[in-house]
Amino acid sequence: MTQPYVRPDVAAFLAAGRESGAPAINELPVPDARAAIRAMGQALDLPPVALAVVRDLACGSISLRLYDARETRDSGPLILFFHGGGFVFGDLDSHDSFCRFVAQRCDLPVLAVDYRLAPEYPFPAFAQDAEEVARWAAAAPAALGFAPTGIVTCGDSAGGHMAILVAQRLGARPADRPVLAQWAIYPFLGAGNDWPSMRDFSEGYMLTRSAMDWFDGLCGKPEGDERYNLLLGPVPQVPLLIQIAALDPLRDPARHYADRARAAGAKVVQLEAEGMIHGYVNMRTALPSAQQDIENLLATGLALLE
């Protein structure tokens, strides 16, 4: 592989990580790994913006958080957000700053989902929770305080997987209101390791092969289940916005899924963040250039809804 382009802020961040001597996440017990990731997010992301509405609610036993820049609204799209974290870590707080920014920038309500995590709840817990919340939200429950016209599924990494998964599941068996679009940010596709980007970027570029194997082991990686390997699932006729980091081991499966969706006739907009690594949505202080990628993502996503 020729030496890839690396943005200056990304190069500085990676160098600092190498020099820190901190243990890899997958070398820690799960509770310690979760605490380390939580602390890293608090240190590396932008401070949260104030919103008119930040309200915790629930779908059965699944905790949710509603964000809105408006005090009240009658209807319109609802962004349903699933956080990243390898299905092992992350929660409503880990992506709180990002969700607030999305709600403010898009002037749309955002509903974040605190789905069950492995290893306490292995596969298919996350898939079940994602679909359950999507169907609940599509039924316009009174707890939302407004009646959404449809759902925009959104998420990063493992959350990007769930954004696509929900569109697939609700495409096969529709909910009360439609999925209007999918916004998948450097999504995990569950499509195995035999990809050039897995070989080229699985060491030294934030997300490592050993970490991915660790996630798979904790989640209980199933063989041949389309709820995990999304390349086995149906392609919904729902507009897909997919943003890919060029230095991400997950790059090539994401490109392949975008190509597959195009071939199936779906509208696809593919954005690539050149010189960027996996995980940037909640590292915007450490990686200031990522903010422009996020701005581009949201502007493009809003255009898909017009």
Automatic annotation (TrEMBL):
The organism named in the record is: Novosphingobium sediminicola
Q: Which residues does the UniProt record annotate as the domain Alpha/beta hydrolase fold-3?
A: 79-281
**Which InterPro entries would you find in this protein's record?**
AB_hydrolase_3, AB_hydrolase_fold, GDXG_lipolytic_enzyme, Lipase_GDXG_HIS_AS
Is Hydrolase there in the keyword field?
yes
Q: What is its EC number?
A: 3.1.1.-
State what protein this is by name: Acetyl esterase
Identify the keywords attached in UniProt to this record, alphabetized. Hydrolase
Name the family the entry cites.
Answer: Belongs to the 'GDXG' lipolytic enzyme family.
Any GO molecular function: hydrolase activity
User: Matching Pfam families, A to Z?
Assistant: Abhydrolase_3 (PF07859)
Domain of life from the UniProt record: Bacteria
| Coiled-coil segments on the chain, per record | none
